[in-house]
Inverse folding.
């Protein structure tokens, strides 16, 4: 089974960025824990700050992988193009957020992507990614 994690803009700064919201673990460190937990699953990781690159990645793997866990960062709230890419592919996509976006500014309460996704997980810190994978493998 192959699962792709995609992180969008500013998530390369996890562990450095706004630690009170996003925690102090880098994604690379967390990824090691995830891979150790799901030993029989291939978990690929891709991060980009560029909207078109995220779309290209969705096209590249979205017809062959078994699942995608995406945290599109702020593009979640703005990107019709990423929503269209998710709708265009076959692979199920789970939208995740580290923070509880519903407790934050109002502009974070709306997701352009959610309607094209299998489901949404928000507010469980880094564990949001694990919960997304649990659903895809379950
Ligand atoms: C985020 C929430 C978004 O609103 C924000 O722009 C991010 C991170 C989260 O994981 O909590 O960059 O997706």
């Amino acid at each position: 089974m192959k699962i792709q994690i995609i992180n969008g803009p500013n998530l390369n700064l996890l562990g450095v960025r706004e630690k009170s919201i996003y925690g102090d673990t880098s994604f690379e460190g967390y990824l090691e824990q995830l891979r150790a937990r799901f030993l029989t699953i291939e978990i690929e990781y891709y991060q980009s700050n560029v909207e078109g690159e995220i779309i290209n990645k969705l096209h590249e793997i979205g017809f062959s992988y078994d699942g995608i866990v995406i945290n599109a960062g702020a593009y979640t709230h703005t990107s019709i193009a990423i929503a269209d890419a998710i709708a265009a592919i076959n692979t199920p996509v789970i939208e995740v957020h580290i923070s509880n976006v519903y407790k934050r500014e109002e502009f974070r309460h709306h997701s352009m992507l959610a309607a094209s996704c299998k489901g949404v997980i928000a507010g469980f810190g880094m564990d949001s990614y694990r919960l997304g994978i649990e659903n895809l493998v379950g």
